[in-house]
Amino acid sequence: MNQHENYTLIGPFTQILTMANLPEAGPITDDELEVLEDGGVVVSDGKIKLIGKYNVLLKVAQEEHYRLEKISEPMVLIPGLIDSHTHICFAGSRANDYAMRVAGKSYLEIARSGGGILDSVRKTREATVVELVDLLKKRCDRHLNEGVTTCEVKSGYGLTVEEELKMLEAIKLVNKHHELDLVPTCLAAHMRPPEHTDSKVYLQHILDELLPQVKEQGLADRVDIFIEDTAFTELESLEYLTAAKELGFDITVHADQFSTDGSRVAAEVGAVSADHLEASGDEEIVLLKEAGVVATVLPGASLGLGMHYAPARKMLDGGLCVAIATDWNPGSAPMGDLIMQAALIGAAEKLTIAETLAAITTRAAKALNLTDRGCLTKGTQADMIAFESSNYKEILYFQGKLKPTIVWKQGRRV
Ligand code: NIG
Ligand code: FE
């Protein structure tokens, strides 16, 4: 019996875009992309063992009796996509918010009149864990089909200890059974819930009663907060996040969506990422750069709210590591199509193909502190997606209409 019988050679691919060896931050030109023509990948135990010219690998495979998974169409292979910011664990729809918004009401006006996030809180609280699991699972199915192999998911529609635990439990259950890898984040500080009149008291309650349980039960390693006039102030956020960090959580923040306090907080607490950043200017870019915070832009929220995009070009030129995520949520970003959104912000902001693809693969991995995925090299997780094309540029050129034909999660076709 051969020791390599559980090795599989997959290929040939017309092009393999490895997304390896790219700068961690700042601009990237398309010339910097490593494109393997007529390439193949050897996978085993969910990881990439070898990657290179198909003909060379085929010889090895025949000698060592690897399994062969033949690709007969011209295809481009890239790493599985990483959506580093979503709120896809929720019940209900906010189509009524949408109708109000396009009739001229602002996001903040809708929130103040009882719609908005708190509407999703009501509906999510009414849902059972089983119902939430079912809804989340369906959204994961869709994401996986569209090439997303790792996806961050936030709580934040519970806003009590019990309801936040319910959401995180639902995320954990889906993660256990679904091929898509979920990265949970506790967003109990999404908004002050109606039962509380004092934000400081609510945040302290979360720190005392919820976060220790989240840690103990291994429900999340990350904590998020929404820093904005209608949510939490700079000072409240700073105190909360400092305490959460002391409890051992990684920090990410909803920052600079409408006003600019958030990135200052992100820089000060040493957040892994600051997300949104539509309102960020030169000063905020410098702060994030100096603190080594990943800038995650969310074109889906700009599209949903009819707002301008975050200044991604300026951010890259200012030396930031820019990730792109969907922010898929029932309110501001119901679409959830990562490739389409990346292509649209790329076209509007004049991002190179390399910068845009890095923002949904290797740089999105950085936004989640993941070092084992996001590029295709020896030893990384064999999360890979293949498109029927002979030119990787077509993936963004078709603005989301070209869907992956094959998705592999840890080397297994799904
Ligand atoms: O990232 N800005 C705050 N939170 C979400 C919106 C969530 C919702 O509207 O339900 C966001 O856009
Ligand atoms: Fe968000």
Automatic annotation (TrEMBL):
Domain Amidohydrolase-related residue range list: 76-414
Pfam families (UniProt xref): Amidohydro_1
Species of provenance: Pontibacter burrus
Any GO CC annotation of this UniProt entry: cytoplasm
EC number of this enzyme: 3.5.2.7
Record-linked Gene3D superfamilies: Metal-dependent hydrolases (3.20.20.140), Urease, subunit C, domain 1 (2.30.40.10)
Keywords assigned by UniProt, alphabetized: Histidine metabolism, Hydrolase, Iron, Metal-binding, Zinc
Top-level EC class: hydrolase
Domain of life (superkingdom): Bacteria
GO molecular function, one term: metal ion binding
Pathway membership, UniProt: Amino-acid degradation
GO BP terms: L-histidine catabolic process to glutamate and formamide
Protein name, UniProt field: Imidazolonepropionase
